[in-house]
Amino acid sequence: MRAVKPLILLLLAVSGASAQVQDPRLTELQAWLTALRQHRGEHRETRGATADLTKIKHLIRDWAETRLAGMNTSFDEDRFNREIQEAMLGAGVVCPDGCATSALGYTAPARVRRDGDLVTLQTSVGIDCGYDDSAYLYEWNSGAWRRIFETEQNTYTQSGYLPQTLYGLQASSPGARGERLVLSLGSKPGCSSAYQPLHYRVWRIESRGTTPKLLLDASETAYMGDYPPAKGTLSLADIRLDFTKGGTGYGESHQAVRHFEVRGDVVRPVEPIAPTPRDFVEEWLDMPWSRSAQWSESASLEQWHTKMHRDDGMGDFPDPPLKCATGQDLWQIGIRLHGVEAATYYLVRWRQPDHFTMVDISNRPTCK
Q1: Cβ proximity of 135 and 121 under 8 Å
Q2: How much is the CA Rg of the chain, to the nearest whole Å?
Q3: For 201-223, what is each residue's pLDDT tens digit?
Q4: CA 187, 193, 196: angle at the middle one, nearest 5?
Q5: What are the extents of the domains in the chain?
Q6: What is the per-residue pLDDT for 2?
């Protein structure tokens, strides 16, 4: 893209003479984006993205920050969003027709979310088949909004570039020293299957001005048909995610829970792993025995786990859950696998609200 920068200088000169774009940052942004459009179809290994996208991301971020600088903690969030979106539309930097196959050379409108003494700014820069989202976190300090965290994808190689559709950026309440945890949820953008890797990442911010420390970086295949496809909550000591798994090829999907305990820089998975007995069976079968054993009442269940274990996410066909008459906390879950007529019956102990253990597995119903 050696011709990009000379073209930008020409476009800046032309745009500067126009009354349509008054803000110099938006004028520069418009020029960079217009230059990118001349290179659609190139760099397919990174969906058209090059290092020029980082420049564009920062132009949008810096422009939005100039608007945020004049706001206090009680600013009208809806009005602010409307104003920055109208400004971007007026500058011609937002795709006018939806950009179904390629949004390269355009952006989606930036948006902010205010939560007490924090503000989140999310931006989107176009690539082939979607947008590359970035997010920035600001804290009210000394009478101004100051950036304390950012997440961007700025490695533009075939293996290293992982653009995301971000579904949320959350921060915990601060600790005694001002430390926070930050959680991001995202997936692969656009032109792809309804089942995609769901990325979840957690950072610790020790204090203002320090580099955030990545504590957790994981992904699992999840169903993207609902919005948002995942929900998360967090505190300094606890993280919980809820999302839909399975059903990628046939049968039904199920609900999964990822719950983590945070102690210092150590993030440890803890229960629950699912919200209902049927969901628990699915997760128990999906996990390696080293983890399933933690939720098993007998070591003899390893033989059944080896026989029935599956990690393909294909889905299956469950019977309605049956509460056993004997044993207040026992439930029977019958499940039929694809291509297998006979069901396998799982006896689950459910201690409210969300403690599950596998009691027994059989080829015939055992619940009475």
Answers
A1: yes
A2: 25
A3: 999 998 766 789 999 999 999 99
A4: 30
A5: 4-275, 276-368
A6: 39
